[in-house]
Amino acid sequence: MGNSFEIISKKCKLFYNFFVSNNHNNTIEKNQCSIIKNKNIKLKELLLENDYNYNKKNKKYIELDEYDNDDFIISLKNRSSNNSKSIKDFEILRLIGEGSYGKVFLVKLKNDKKKNNKQYAMKIIEKENVKKWKQKNKIFTERYILQNFNHPFISKLSYAFQDYEKLYLVTDFMPGGDLLHKLISYGKLSEKTSKLYASELFLAIDFLHKNDIIFRDLKPDNILIDEFGHIKLTDFGLSKKFNCESDNSINDSPISQKSNKSHKITYSICGTPSYIAPEVYKVIGYSQEIDWWGFGIVLYEMITGKFPFKRIGKDKKKIFSQDVNFDLKFPLSNDAKDLIEKLLERDVNKRLTEPYDIMNHSFFKDVNWNDIYNKKILPEEDNLSDLSNNTIEEQLNNNFDKKFIENNIEVEKIECFQKNHSDINRDYSLFENFSFNEKEEIIA
Hints:
Blueprint: H1 10-22, E1 29-30, E2 33-34, H2 43-49, E3 52-55, E4 60-63, E5 90-98, E6 102-109, E7 119-126, H3 127-132, H4 136-148, E8 157-162, E9 166-172, H5 179-186, H6 191-210, E10 213-214, E11 223-225, E12 231-233, E13 240-241, H7 278-281, H8 289-304, H9 334-343, H10 355-359, H11 369-373, H12 392-399, H13 402-405, H14 408-419, E14 436-437
Antiparallel strand pairs: 1-2, 3-4, 5-6, 6-7, 7-9, 8-9, 8-14, 10-13, 11-12
Helix pairs in contact: 6-8, 8-9
């Protein structure tokens, strides 16, 4: 093959050099279709088949994806690792949730070597939606956090894989559903259970902050409940990671020390509008303090079953001119009220945001943080603790929205996709290094 094409893009150079140096015997398969028929194929045709476009004006090959990030370079190596899972390895049981960019299904492995019939939650994301809404970096941030951090109250990635159309994130199934469904179903939690969940949530948030991560979307929907009634923080698509180095050694010590906050700031306006801290809208930069605002809202909702502010139409900024509503028909302890008022302080410089001060607030005075970290304390409500003896149908019917679990059409769509899916795990789009198997190295 001659060097008659002007290739300026670094990624195109890598693609070209790999192709020439490895002499692929005239064939590269993509979705079981040969796209190279002979050694004289034009490089332009090869690049176009792999999501590149030729810009005649600038004489460059440009990626069709919105991001031109050198961290995600094209590579053909290890694309078809035998260790990588695919959609065909799983049995699709039920739709259990849906978000802005994907649906969540209850699944289990077809060939379960451990024979424990373990269920998983599989989040399926359409690549076209990722590209359309420019969410590629957010998807990789979520995958990175789920894979790299071990904490008792943070969801953990079991598998990640992809095909030509979709991305898949597989985590442990949480049979208790999410906290929002619990609050809708039962109105509110006891202050004792609210304190337990607030303690577990505090440790999860503090852990993320120690690792230079801002969660940015704290709300009941993103707090899952496991079979023993403990919480798991999930959905890290809006999280901000300031660097790529983790320090899992801090797992061994849940006790936060003073002045542990990061001073790094970011500017993106993102999150669920009703839960966004006031400083985010000011476009002057914000940091980890916004998560403690969300923490205060969630604590209020758990104890009261209400939202702390009056919801005023679509103008969410009007929330910040209101005082917290403590005019309730049932009692709220003085300690809880004081903590919530300090967390929901609109002035970030006056807000209670120092982790050491939060965990030593009088609301938590009787909390043994080591017992919390080691999951020795269980919620007092029967509908929250020990769901392990319930059947899967009981877990679904009691803890998940019926509009999801009764939607068989979505399950049938995925099953149909499975039948027509190629077993060859090759993907030449721009999601390199997405795939992952638990306790194994990252698989491209």
